[in-house]
Sequence to fold (231 residues):
Amino acid sequence: EVQLLESGGDLVQPGGSLRLSCAASGFTFINCAMSWVRQAPGKGLEWVSAISGSGDSTYYADSVKGRFTISRDNSKNTLYLQMNSLRVEDTAVYYCAKSWGSGRNPENWGQGTLVTVSS
Amino acid sequence: DVVMTQSPLSLPVTLGQPASISCRSSQSLVHSDGNTYLSWFQQRPGQSPRRLIYKVSLRDSGVPDRFSGSGSGTDFTLKISRVEADDVGVYYCMQGTLWPPTFGGGTKVEIK
Fold:
């Protein structure tokens, strides 16, 4: 059974940094692209970033390009999202998702971790 | 970016009756490989999204056959043949054909 467990969400001030983690199990991690998708409180879903199985290819939404960095450690079956220069509008639940099609197509989702950016 | 437009925004349904959600894309979702990467997700209150349908009409494992997807090009539909209480939540369509992937705004299904 695919399991994805996000962690690292917290309250942070505007301009601050945070690193999210997603521990994966139940599938061959290195074979799968992974994504981050977020959901602001009471709002819809927004794709944030994706990474290929090898980690060689990464993709970002324009809204986070230059501020967020996606990475993975295939020896630890863990996905990361380094978030810098955080803004109030980055406040959201962040989901990691096992994906296919270079990360364009999320299939299994974690339970999410809440990031709150506020002074 | 591809804009995904869902309708209606809210869908009150009587238990046991059918429901239909429309999703339209601003560009054709036919990929150069011939596939159409249109998915549907269900998000029950307080839960993570769950994929129901992928590639327009393929049901995920464990999804009741009450759920069906159809459409082509820029016009897609999710149908629930007989709504059950467990189906309450928000439904999202999503395109994964073109970068960046984009979601529809969601349709809230509730029981009358």
User: Anything to note?
Assistant: The longest strand of chain A covers residues 92-100. Chain A has a mean pLDDT of 97.
